[in-house]
Amino acid sequence: MPTQLYKTSMTAADHSLYQRILDFQVDLPNATFPFSYKLAWEYQWTSLYTLRTIDEYKKFVFLAVAANHMVSPSTPVDRVWHLHLLYTHSYWDDFCGQVLGKPLHHSPSLGGQQEGKKYQRVYQQTLFTYRQYFGDPPTDIWHPPRLRSESTDFQWVNKRHFWLIPHPASIVKKLIS
Question: What is the mean pLDDT of residues 41-50?
Fold first, then answer.
């Protein structure tokens, strides 16, 4: 389902680019374990959240090409981008080469306070431009600007070797929300 576009001054070239991006399929039809399944499995996302995040990745890519400024993804969108980069033929040849018509490089932060402030400015500008084209972003995918995009408590855990027991405060919080 195509997204309603909000920016009235979108050019014909913008419309064409966005439609090509929307039409691009990250899941290969003959794959036993397609891109979206791998993404959902890797981050323990639901199928619906995974598909929504892929759609938001496509909006981000459109902004990266169409905006006249540097853009920065949210954490979930960045995760989709990272995985897509690993599918090198799909990303570089098919997506960048044929759909975008130009390379789209991922430039990670160099770290430090100055980079953090730069990220905040760029991310705020990205959200502003997003709103111009698409309206308000979904807050479960596009977090409010802050220095860290996810909790520092986040860790990868091998669930075959460890039990995960929720903190009692998180259970109470879930019950009252």
Answer: 95
Average pLDDT over residues 68-84: 95
| Rg, C-alpha atoms of the chain | 18
Whether 16 has a pLDDT exceeding 50, the answer reads yes
Contacts of 36 (CB under 8 A, 6+ apart): 26, 27, 47, 50, 51, 54
- State mean pLDDT over 35-44: 95
Single out the residue of 69, 36, 28, 68 nearest to residue 52, CA to CA: 36
Rounded to the nearest angstrom, the gap between the alpha carbon of residue 40 and the centroid of all alpha carbons in its chain is 13
- Percentage of the chain beyond pLDDT 90 is 65
Which DSSP category does 44 fall into? T
Residue for token pair 């080469």? 97
Q: How far is CA 105 from CA 59, 122, 135, in A?
A: 16, 16, 26
Count of positions (residues) in the chain: 177
Give residue limits of the domains in the chain. Answer: 12-151
pLDDT tops 80 at residue 148? no
- Are 87 and 28 in contact by the 8 Å Cβ rule? The answer is no
User: Distances in Å between the alpha carbon of 93 and those of 27, 38, 87, 103, 134?
Assistant: 15, 21, 10, 9, 27
Q: How far is CA 145 from the centre of its chain?
A: 15
